[in-house]
């Protein structure tokens, strides 16, 4: 794993070698298939991290995600999990048909799969954790929907 200003990305998303900046595999943050280096952003983030919440800090790495307020239920999908399933209510703070960012207290790690459904029931969508942000005892989680597009996120 690589830690940059409290944001963790799995090693397979990082370009080999050390350089200043945060590297994401394009496509994870709206890129065009090439590796993207986020540069000047780093200095600005160092100055403003205390002014922003956890989800807002993570959303800076996904500039195309609009701010939303969609209440959801989140449940980890783990093989061999106990019958008493873990589940929590959360609010998607930034989201689109392809990605969502929400605060969570669940024990989630990179590449974990989760099931996200609207609080009122209805359809659910499977997603994979692609980034985590830790700040002041809180954790923001960024996920990418497995099936490509989650239509009910747009309609909410």
Give a quick rundown of the structure.
The chain is mainly beta and 156 residues long.
Describe this protein's structure.
With 156 residues, this protein is mainly β. It has two domains: 2-52, no CATH class; 67-155, predicted glycosyltransferase like domains (Thrombin, subunit H, Beta Barrel). Helices cover 12% and strands 40% of the residues. It is globular, with a radius of gyration of 15 Å.
- In percent, how much strand structure appears in the residues? 35-45%
Specify Rg, calculated over alpha carbons. Answer: 15 Å
Structural class: mainly beta
String of helices and strands: EEEEHHEEEEEEH
Number of strands: 10
How many separate structural domains?
2
**Main sheet: strand order:** 5-6-7-10-9-8
Number of helices: 3
Largest sheet: 6 strands, antiparallel, barrel
- Highest-level CATH class of the largest domain: Mainly Beta
Reported by name, the CATH topology of the largest domain is Thrombin, subunit H
Q: CATH superfamily name of the largest domain? A: predicted glycosyltransferase like domains
What is the average per-residue confidence, as pLDDT, rounded to a whole number? Answer: 74
Give the name of the CATH architecture of the largest domain: Beta Barrel
Classify the helix fraction into a percent range. 10-25%
């Amino acid at each position: 794993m690589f830690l940059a200003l409290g944001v963790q990305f799995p090693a397979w998303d990082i370009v080999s070698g050390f350089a200043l900046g945060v590297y994401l595999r394009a496509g994870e943050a709206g890129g065009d298939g090439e590796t993207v280096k986020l540069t000047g952003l780093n200095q600005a983030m160092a100055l403003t991290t205390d002014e922003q919440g956890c989800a807002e800090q993570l959303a800076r790495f996904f500039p195309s995600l609009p701010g939303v307020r969609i209440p959801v239920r989140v449940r980890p999908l783990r093989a061999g999990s106990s019958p008493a399933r873990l589940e929590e209510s959360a609010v998607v703070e930034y989201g689109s048909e392809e990605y969502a960012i929400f605060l969570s207290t669940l024990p989630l790690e990179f590449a974990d799969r989760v099931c996200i459904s609207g609080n009122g029931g209805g359809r659910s969508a499977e997603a994979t954790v692609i980034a985590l942000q830790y700040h002041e005892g809180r954790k923001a989680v960024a996920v990418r929907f497995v099936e490509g597009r989650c239509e009910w996120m747009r309609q909410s």
